[in-house]
């Protein structure tokens, strides 16, 4: 009788089905699409002080409230819409985080003008290819790196808000600038070749 092989995943994702799906299909996949980068920047800046699980559960609410993460539309959100968003239970109702997303959309487009795309800009911080880390356990995972420190500092200089080094390192992990899947995780090699 053949034994079934259990799929080994990074343990942080085992809390609920949406987390597993996110881990199995998105986390660590290299992203070159500016809209997706903007989506993750909005979600990650909203996460400050909260769990990623909370944000994932509100992702559809954010997609609806933030014009499917169209940064050109978000950059033009008027104050009256900010007041509407503060009443929207589908997102994190925090004035500073909402205003940061609008501010960051404007800064995002300035980066695009300078570098041709936000993707060109951000991938420059890792030499244009994903950093492949070797992690035997979650204890070895870092919260920040020299690359995330430099990127966060540069973003701050460019006027971005709610995007410190820890948040930016999470962005780098999520969008595949860094492959931090554990060595034992089935996704480790899959994202490496995408």
From TrEMBL:
Highest taxon of the lineage: Bacteria
Keywords for this protein: Metal-binding, Zinc
GO MF assignments: DNA-3-methyladenine glycosylase activity; metal ion binding
One GO-annotated biological process of the protein: base-excision repair
UniProt: Zn(2+) binding residues: 10, 23, 181, 185
Listed Gene3D superfamilies: Hypothetical protein, domain 2 (1.10.340.30)
Pfam families: Adenine_glyco (PF03352)
InterPro entries linked: Adenine_glyco, DNA-3mA_glycosylase, DNA_glycosylase
Name assigned to this protein: DNA-3-methyladenine glycosylase I
Species of provenance: Algoriphagus lacus
């Amino acid at each position: 009788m053949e034994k079934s092989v259990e799929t080994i995943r990074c343990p942080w994702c085992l809390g609920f089905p949406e987390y597993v799906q996110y881990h199995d299909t998105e986390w660590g996949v290299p992203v070159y699409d500016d809209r997706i980068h903007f989506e993750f920047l909005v979600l990650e800046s909203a996460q400050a002080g909260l769990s990623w699980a909370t944000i994932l559960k509100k992702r559809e609410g954010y997609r609806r409230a933030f014009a499917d993460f169209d940064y050109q539309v978000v950059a033009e959100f008027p104050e009256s819409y900010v007041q509407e968003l503060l009443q929207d239970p589908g997102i994190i109702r925090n004035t500073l985080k909402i205003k940061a997303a609008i501010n960051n959309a404007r800064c995002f487009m300035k980066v695009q003008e300078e570098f041709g795309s936000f993707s060109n800009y951000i991938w420059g911080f890792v030499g244009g290819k994903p950093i492949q880390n070797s992690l035997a356990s979650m204890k070895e995972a870092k919260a920040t790196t020299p690359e995330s420190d430099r990127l966060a500092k540069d973003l701050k200089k460019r006027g971005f808000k709610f995007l410190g080094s820890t948040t930016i390192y999470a962005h780098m992990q999520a969008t595949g600038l860094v492959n931090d899947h554990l060595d034992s995780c089935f996704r480790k090699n899959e994202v490496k070749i995408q």
